[in-house]
Every structure is written in structure tokens, then in C-alpha cells.
Design goal:
This protein is an alpha+beta fold. The chain is built from 5 helices and 7 strands, in the order H-E-E-E-E-H-H-H-E-E-H-E.
């Protein structure tokens, strides 16, 4: 490993520091429980993938690939159009658990095969994750069965490549870090839910308790019914 990569990986492992008063006195929050440190994922790349939905020709999503403590992750990052999704980081082990013997033997599968890999229940999640797997060379379209995919790449090799890859840098030249557990916006304005009513969802962010878990149609090669869009 080169000196440059050693320095980068050392920087990746640094834990965020809590704020300390400059005069060394007590913090105004000393009476409360100490805040938990924010766990950060090192981003290896940010890229785009074509959507699977025929209702959105030319539509694309942005995704990120990252690593944390010897584990590779991927997540949906942005959606170019309508459709809610979860920004959660998905570890390779969660993907691996979804790969049945039939899938590993080359049998085609629907996007819903990856439902167990995600905590969020937005109906677009699995379609978007499948689009990311295709973009990363881990899956491909099954030409004879509409709406289905087949595994192509080797997940173990992919994970090793992610762990060895140079990290992505931000605009200031620093290693790009993203929280393992992204904050969830209750409304598109970032405020609390209004009393007695349901808040509007922020574009591309799944809200707590969201029950929009519409299943993917059996015969379509799509990312499931789009969720609410921001007016």
C-alpha cells in the first residue's frame, strides 16, 4: 500500500470529535447524556444509473458506493425525477443474504428479491437498488423475461475492489464522508409534522413510519409505482 493511501485510510478512520468549550469549562449540555458520535462512511464513488421503469424513459438515479471498517456499502443518493426512496446505506452482507441458490445458479429474479436488504419500505427502493447493481456490473437484464434480472458479477470481488479503491474527494480536496445513518426530514421544509395532519415528504427521503410499500407489478421492468413528488 502506498504512503498516500496509508494517509488517506488513516484519515478515514478518524472519529468525529465532540465540541469542547474553549475555556475548558462545563458544556451547557453536561447534565444530559453525551451525544453519540456520528459514524461516517468513506465514499469511494458517486455515479448515475438508468432507471428500470418504462414510465420514465431516460430517467436516472444517483448512487454512492462506500466503505466502513472493512465492509463495502452502496446506497441510492438522488432521484432525478419523482419517486420516494430510502437513503440508507446497504452493506454487502445484506445483499448477499438475498441471493438465493437459484439466483447464484443463474436463474432470473425480480427486483423484490432485495426487499429484505432494506429497512425502508418505499416501493421504489428495490427497483433502484437493482438499477445500481446493474450499473456496478453485478446484475444484467434478462432479455427473455421482461422485468427480471440475472446476477453477473462476483460480489466478493466487487467488495474487495471497493475496499482497495481510492476515496472520492469533495470540492475542498478532503475525503468525502457521509453519515451511516442519514437524518430524515419530516417535511420538505425540515420542520416538524403539523399537529393533526400528515406532513409532506421531502423529495427523495423516506419518512418515519412511511407505509408506501406498493409491490412491484409482476410483469413490468420498472422501479415500482412512484411515490409522492414535491409540488
Amino acid at each position: 500500500m502506498t504512503t498516500k493511501m496509508k494517509k488517506q485510510k488513516t484519515h478515514e478512520q478518524k472519529s468525529p470529535q465532540t465540541d469542547v468549550p474553549p475555556d475548558g469549562g462545563e458544556s451547557i449540555n453536561d447534565s444530559a447524556a453525551p451525544a453519540a458520535a456520528v459514524i461516517m462512511v468513506t465514499v469511494v464513488r458517486t455515479a448515475k444509473a438508468p432507471k428500470l421503469s418504462p414510465r420514465d424513459p431516460g430517467g436516472r438515479i444517483s448512487y454512492q458506493v462506500g466503505r466502513l471498517e472493512g465492509v463495502a456499502y452502496l446506497r441510492i443518493y438522488q432521484n432525478d425525477s419523482a419517486g420516494q426512496f430510502s437513503k440508507e446505506w446497504v452493506p454487502t452482507e445484506a445483499l448477499r443474504r438475498c441471493m438465493t441458490p437459484a439466483m447464484l445458479a443463474g436463474q432470473p429474479w425480480k427486483t423484490r428479491a432485495y426487499i429484505p436488504a432494506l429497512v425502508g419500505r418505499s416501493s421504489t427502493n428495490c427497483g433502484f437498488i437493482t438499477a445500481v447493481l446493474r450499473a456496478e456490473g453485478l446484475a444484467a437484464t434478462e432479455p427473455e423475461k421482461r422485468g427480471m434480472s440475472v446476477l453477473t458479477g462476483n460480489l466478493d470481488d466487487w467488495e474487495r475492489a471497493v475496499l482497495d479503491a481510492e476515496p472520492e474527494l469533495d470540492g475542498d480536496g478532503n475525503v468525502r464522508l457521509e453519515p451511516l445513518h442519514p437524518p430524515v426530514k419530516d417535511t420538505r421544509f425540515g420542520g416538524p409534522r403539523p399537529a393533526g395532519g400528515r406532513a409532506k415528504r421531502a423529495r427523495g427521503v423516506e419518512m418515519p413510519g412511511d407505509d408506501d410499500d406498493g409491490a412491484e407489478p409482476d410483469t413490468s421492468d420498472e422501479d415500482a409505482t412512484p411515490g409522492e413528488s414535491e409540488d
